Amino acid sequence: MSARTTRPHEIVERALALSRADGCVVIADERSTANLRWAGNALTTNGVTRGRTLTVIATVDGKEGTASGVVSRSAVTADELEPLVRAAEAAARGAGPAEDAQPLVTGVEPSPDFTDAPAETSSAVFADFAPALGESFARARAGGRELYGFANHELVSSYLGTSTGLRLRHDQPTGTLELNAKSPDRTRSAWAGRATRDFKDVDPAALDAELAVRLGWAERRTQLPAGRYETLLPPTAVADLLIYQTWSASARDAAEGRTVFSRPGGGTRVGDRLSALPLTLRSDPHAPGLESAPFVLAHSSGGDTSVFDNGLPLTATDWIREGTLERLTTTRHSAALTGRPVAPAIDNLVLDGGTDRSLEEMVAGTERGLLLTCLWYIREVDPATLLLTGLTRDGVYLVENGEVTGEVNNFRFNESPVDLLGRATEAGRTERTLPREWGDWFTRAAMPPLRVPDFNMSSVSQGV
């Protein structure tokens, strides 16, 4: 048996058969990627990779409770499989009782394609995209701008088997495109990004045209001081803020009084009105175009993830419903501790409930304000209020009387996404977007643009 010749479901079955622990979970992740990179209106590199990671989770029952041990390795061969299983068992025996211990999940119908070969991507995913990108290079060169960026497509087939009989499989395609346009002297820069499952819905010509307009806006530059400004946040910026909010929405942390979702005096803020707008923040593993794993795939325990929940079915979940906090994330263990429903994290996020107005229409309805491109270098300042700081990037534009009149300097901001939801006066049309800051970890998002009347630009930044 080699790492490449044995099919993933076979290696899962053999690892389970080798286990001597009281319980065992095995996850085989078969990963393939294809990518393109370009700079100065020319392709620079391309490549395809393949790999497999095997994770073995052993559980051992003891007088004081159940312990777990987790070991992950890549490219496991026949000779390495048993040592990997034994290492997980040794880690479990050497650990104390796991606080999140629960019976392993049972009773989930097996995936009908569990024994099928893994799905794989290849350079063919760019068959239509690459020629269109080449045409965009020619247009950009003729227009006096330079294009930089990369396109990446990844396909991960995950096979989950457990000693309690679960046999589940999920194929996850993830595509991202980031495109930067720069003036030849590098003083002006504009960015656009897209998330996709297969690159069939990505139009580089349209993105280049959008960036050309933004570089044109930047030919006129105005300096503004720090302060509070009416600000239009595009979907990518909204996604970055609300993803961090979702990562911070642990029911257990809230119940213990440690987060913005803690109720003064005890308990959580579930049931509190967070926004005057009828906004719903939700996740759904079956959301069209944003499909994600319909069951828990946990390679480790921590925060609000638990290896004991592997295989637990996931369903559509409203985190905020029509402006009111509805759910906080939980494992089975933390749900029991807090008295909240079981609500594991799901790998997508949608905010809807706004109007059908596009960002361009919201610009046209702005008397004076700022239009952002994206946010980056986002960091937490205060978990009690979820105050975040970060920088604007690749274009902040001044809007006057419904038109963009030029570019202004970049800023550092200090804002809480929870407060922003409460102060937002308009939400536009929800559309799929690529988070700029968190795109390496979270890509499946659909957000509307938001109008915030007093966004806090705390200081001027010298970044481009």
UniProtKB/TrEMBL annotation:
It comes from Streptomyces minutiscleroticus. Residues 227-458 form the Metalloprotease TldD/E C-terminal domain. It comes from the Bacteria. GO terms for molecular function: metallopeptidase activity. Residues 92-101 have a biased composition (Low complexity). GO terms for biological process: proteolysis. InterPro entries: Metalloprtase-TldD/E_C (IPR045569), TldD/PmbA_N (IPR035068), TldD/PmbA_sf (IPR036059). This is Peptidase. Residues 92-117 are annotated as: Disordered.
